[in-house]
Automatic annotation (TrEMBL):
The chain crosses the membrane at residues 32-51, 63-90, 134-162, 189-216. This is EI24 domain-containing protein. Keywords: Membrane, Transmembrane, Transmembrane helix. It comes from Qipengyuania qiaonensis. Its main location: membrane.
Length: 230
C-alpha cells in the first residue's frame, strides 16, 4: 500500500506528461465553459425580464447580477462540475499513469461504454446533490461555531470525492460487480479530503481533479498488488 503523500508526490511529478496536460486543458476549459454558458443564460433571462418589467438600467443590473451569481456558483459548485466533467476524461489520466508505472495492469483493462460512463457520472452527481442537501440542516445548526459548517461539508464531500476517484480507476479493472474494490475506507476518505481542500483554492482547483485521479490510480494499483513498488 502506498501512502497518500507518496501518491500525491508521484502525481505531481507526472503533471508535465503531455497526456496529463491535454486532460488538464480539456477539463479546465470545459468546466469554465459550462459556467460561462450558465452565466450567459442567466444574463439573457434576467435582462429580458427586467426589460419587460420596465426597469431602468436593465443591461447594467442584469450584467452585474449575472456576474455575481456566476462567481459565487463557480466558488461553491466548481468541485461538482469539475468532477462531473473529469468522469469523461479520467480514462486518459488513468491510462497515462498506468502506462508509466503499472504497464502490467494493461491486461485487466476493460473498455467502459459511453452509456455506462454517462450513467456513472449522473449517479455521482445525484449522490453529491443529495448528500450535500442532507448535510445542509446540520451545517446550518453549526454555522454559529465558525468552522462547524465547513467541517460538515468537508467530511461529506471527502467521502464522496474519495469514492468517485477510486471508482474512476477501479471500474476500468473490475472483473465483475461482486468483486470487492481495493483501497480501504480511511485512505479513500483521506484522498477525497485532500482533493476537496485543494478544490477550495483558486487556480489550484483547476489541477486538483487531475492530481486526485492520478493519486487514486497509484493507490488503487498499490492496494491491488499489496507489495512495495518502486
Amino acid at each position: 500500500m502506498i501512502s497518500l503523500p507518496a501518491a500525491f508526490a508521484l502525481s505531481l511529478r507526472q503533471l508535465g506528461d503531455p497526456a496529463i496536460i491535454a486532460v488538464l486543458l480539456k477539463t479546465a476549459l470545459t468546466t469554465l465553459a459550462i459556467f460561462v454558458v450558465l452565466g450567459g443564460v442567466l444574463l439573457a433571462g434576467l435582462y429580458n425580464y427586467l426589460i419587460s418589467a420596465g426597469v431602468a438600467f436593465s443591461a447594467e443590473i442584469s450584467g452585474f447580477v449575472a456576474a455575481l451569481v456566476t462567481v459565487f456558483a463557480g466558488w461553491f459548485l466548481f468541485r461538482v462540475v469539475a468532477l462531473f466533467v473529469l468522469q469523461f476524461f479520467a480514462e486518459d489520466v488513468v491510462r497515462a499513469v498506468e502506462t508509466k508505472h503499472y504497464p502490467h495492469a494493461a491486461h485487466t483493462v476493460r473498455d467502459i461504454p459511453l452509456a455506462e460512463e454517462v450513467g456513472n457520472a449522473l449517479r455521482s452527481l445525484l449522490r453529491t446533490v443529495l448528500a450535500n442537501a442532507a448535510a445542509l440542516p446540520i451545517a446550518g445548526l453549526l454555522l454559529v461555531t465558525g468552522i462547524g459548517a465547513a467541517a460538515v461539508f468537508w467530511a461529506v464531500n471527502a467521502f464522496l470525492v474519495g469514492r468517485e476517484l477510486r471508482d474512476m480507476v477501479w471500474l476500468r479493472h473490475r472483473s465483475d460487480r461482486a468483486e470487492i474494490a481495493p483501497m480501504g475506507g480511511l485512505n479513500r476518505v483521506l484522498l477525497g479530503g485532500a482533493v476537496v481542500a485543494l478544490l477550495a483554492i483558486p487556480f489550484v482547483n483547476l489541477i486538483a481533479p487531475i492530481i486526485g485521479a492520478a493519486a487514486a490510480t497509484h493507490m488503487v494499483h498499490r492496494a491491488r498488488e499489496k507489495v512495495p513498488h518502486a
